[in-house]
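Retro notes, item 3 of 5
We never archived the inputs for the magnesium ion complex last cycle. Fixing that now. Sequence and ligand:
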Amino acid sequence: MAVGVHSEFSGVEGDFIELDGVEKVFDVRKKTGFLRSERRQVRAVDSLSFTVPRGEMVGYIGPNGAGKSTTIKMLTGILTPSGGRLRVAGIDPSRERTRLAQRIGVVFGQRTTLWWDLPLIDSYRLMHRMYRIPDGRYRENLDRCVELLQLADLLDVPVRQLSLGQRMRGDIAAALLHDPDVLYLDEPTIGLDVISKARVREFLRDLNAERGTTVLLTTHDLTDIEQLCRRVMVIDHGRLMYDGPLTGLHEVGESERTLVVDLERELPPIEVESARVVKVEGPRQWLAFPAASSAAPLVARIAAEYPLVDLSVREPDIETVIAKMYAQGGAEKAVS
Ligand SMILES: Nc1ncnc2c1ncn2[C@@H]1O[C@H](COP(=O)(O)OP(=O)(O)OP(=O)(O)O)[C@@H](O)[C@H]1O
Ligand SMILES: [Mg+2]
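Structure as it came back at the time:
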């Protein structure tokens, strides 16, 4: 994983992943009776356009069936788009899948790329040969992954005996032995406990910072995104619904923040413009107000009219915002 030894892209600024009007339509046969079936088309990805510059770490999120894995499969060349234009490192993935394989690493959380019956180290040895990784580089990358992903005690264990978290770390190492410029992660923390998740996240953060690896991260765990990605893309029904900073989702989701007010004593619900009481518990009251507006004038009004002891502002949690956004089916306005 030596820094800066990449071939034609070294020193070149610009977009590393490019999608322009990409579509994927699946033909599905549905049985409708004895000897009868109906053909149906599923548009899994629908005129999808975005670019990712080199070295960026982007979150790619959306509800079940939104088209995330389909996108990643097209980006690896496993699936061929039904329409549009797609390039990764200047390569058309489905046409030059083998050449692209040298440049990308993939981790599908739901299935392993490791050999099930072999000890972990044997999978790595096979990849060493398959990808024709120079010996020195292989050793260096392996040592680094073993250290940072804490794999030392697991190398001689057959993959099927590893716990999910151990296997996932093993899979991430496998995806990185050949120094890929870009790493696609499809739910890399699925089913992991809190400690394993933290370890994987820390590793990814370091990888991105130190090696400049471009990372596309799909997950249902929004904490992954909050901790790793400044930019997030939201996809639903195969379409891009939002592309921007995570914080911007709050405004798009038209969500609310909460002001928690502690009064000197129990009082009737506070009456104030631009906020409404959503909960009262003894002297404590919760007021919801639009996330986009400042809390300061609201606090000033309440402080002037009520016996205030303490207060705090709670940000909307991102899960609520996104759930709301999916439900509205309409953050299209956020994508220009
Ligand atoms: N090989 C296939 N044949 C037919 N339909 C498919 C195929 N693969 C995916 N689909 C359909 O395409 C749509 C998008 O699926 P995809 O797996 O990309 O979603 P996803 O966003 O990864 O969802 P999840 O969060 O559940 O992993 C779904 O409606 C799915 O049923
Ligand atoms: Mg998926």
